[in-house]
Amino acid sequence: MNKNRSIISGIDWWTILLFLVIAIFGWLNIYGAGYSFDQTGIWDFSNRAGKQLVWLATAIVLGIIIMMIDEKTYDVLAYILYGAMLLLLAITPLVANNVKGSYSWITLGPISLQPAEFAKCVTALAVAKYMGRYEYRLRDWRDLIVPFALIGVPMLIIMVAQRETGSALVFLSFLLVFYRQRMSGYVLLFGVTSIVLFLIVIYFGGTSLPFGAGNVGILASTLVIETIVTGWLLLKDKNIKSVIFIASGIALIYGVGALLCIWFPINFNYVGIISLVYTAGYLAITTIIT
Questions:
Q1: How far is it, in rounded angstroms, from Cα 136 to Cα 35?
Q2: Is residue 183 left, alpha or beta, with left meaning phi > 0 and alpha meaning psi from -120 to 50?
Q3: Which domain holds residue 219?
Q4: 223 assigned to some structural domain
Q5: Is 241 a domain residue?
Q6: Domain boundary among 16, 46, 69
Q7: Domain ends where: 39, 69, 99?
Q8: What 8-state DSSP symbol labels residue 212?
Q9: What are 149-196's pLDDT values in tens digits?
Q10: How far apart are CA 182 and CA 195, in angstroms?
Q11: How far are the Cα atoms of 73, 172, 173 from residue 169, in angstroms, in the given order?
Q12: 107 Cα distance to chain centroid
């Protein structure tokens, strides 16, 4: 009885409320997006919204069961579940069907499951067990080798073997945990930049430039990287001269490319790469000199 009271008193009811609100709004959006005049109603379990309602109810029941299990059980099983999940992730591409180029879904009769979703929870358990040790302290980059490996291995399997880049990028959210543990903000910046670049390439990947040859996604990605570098030099180091030098060089490179485009078929993907090489070279030289 006392244990049940401690469980109820320890629940973050605001988080539960936010989860239910987001889940219900998502369910209604699914119903609206897949609505057709042939549907019998929102409670029809033969359509997508009805199936999602079943999963929502299942998630609530599982959440209650998980809270009732002794927390020491998760500490004991963390690495075992992590190892079993890695094995399942490795097997998945061998038995999964091709779904829009991705091999990440396992079909079990009428149910389709994506092991990558469960891998996120199991990875969180493994990372929490390792970083929750009494003797663990985040002092320098060497203390992040094991946590990064725990996150990187399933992430690589999902991205390379299963070809499911979207689910793999979710693992970068663990950087927020490390940042709260006094990890350098540069690593967090790297993770956020990776997500931004991925979204740019996905959204603009099939868009060609209105002039010359080249891809809008690749060109936009190079400009984002250069903007972050110059912004870092300006805000952190107050190095206005370097910012002016880099910006002037980039403008010159793109200007020459645009001018040559009048007479020659210039591929601006290479112009963007040249500007990146110029920026990286300038930073390398100034770092060596200073």
A1: 52
A2: beta
A3: 184-290
A4: yes
A5: yes
A6: 69
A7: 69
A8: S
A9: 888 888 888 877 887 877 777 887 887 777 777 776 666 776 677 777
A10: 21
A11: 29, 6, 8
A12: 25
